């Protein structure tokens, strides 16, 4: 979708000498979704940016605690993103995106989705690291 949109933008600008007005706004909207979903996927697979200087220099027994603290911070940030993103969505329901006609809330939706997924994935990482399995909880 994004490649087609940018392709049409370049074609319209340089071949037709008439840039379609909606293409740039729709491309920016697509980039927001791709970026936020990529961030959530990074949290899920533990491939997100992290500062490991402190964690690498603490004694071995505290390293596991540092991983949990990092995931708790990511979960808290994801929760904050979800909360603030939902407020932004509600505030901008009636404002249209120029050239697209969609509600400005569509620009804030990736914050809500990404924040919720980040929170969910960070908490799942903690549960996985603790060795808690849903099957064992149901059997107990």
Mean pLDDT: 85
What integer value in Å does the Rg equal?
A: 20 Å
Count of individual helical segments: 6
Shape: elongated
Reading the helices and strands in chain order gives HHHHHH
Characterize the biggest β-sheet. none
Explain what the structure shows:
This protein is mostly helical. The protein has one domain. It is built from six helices and no strands. Helix 1 (2-14) runs antiparallel to helix 2 and helix 2 (21-44) packs parallel to helix 5. The chain starts with a helix and ends with a helix. The mean pLDDT is 85.
Can you describe this structure in just a few lines?
With 140 residues, the protein is an all-alpha fold.
Task: Write a concise keyword list for the protein shown above.
140 residues; 6 helices; 75% helix
Secondary-structure blueprint of this entry?
Layout: H1 2-14, H2 21-44, H3 53-56, H4 60-91, H5 105-130, H6 134-139
């Amino acid at each position: 979708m994004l490649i087609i949109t940018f392709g049409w933008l370049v074609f319209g600008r340089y071949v037709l000498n008439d840039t379609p007005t909606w293409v740039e706004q729709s491309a920016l909207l697509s980039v927001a979704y791709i970026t936020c979903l990529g961030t959530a996927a990074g949290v899920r697979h533990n491939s997100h940016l992290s500062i490991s200087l402190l964690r690498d220099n603490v004694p071995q027994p505290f390293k596991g605690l540092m991983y949990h603290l990092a995931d708790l911070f990511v979960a808290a940030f994801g929760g904050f993103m979800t909360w603030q993103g939902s407020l932004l969505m509600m505030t901008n329901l009636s404002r249209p995106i120029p050239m697209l006609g969609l509600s400005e809330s569509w620009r804030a939706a990736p914050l809500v989705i990404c924040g919720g997924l980040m929170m969910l994935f960070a908490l799942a990482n903690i549960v996985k690291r603790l060795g808690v399995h849903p099957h064992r909880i149901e059997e107990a």
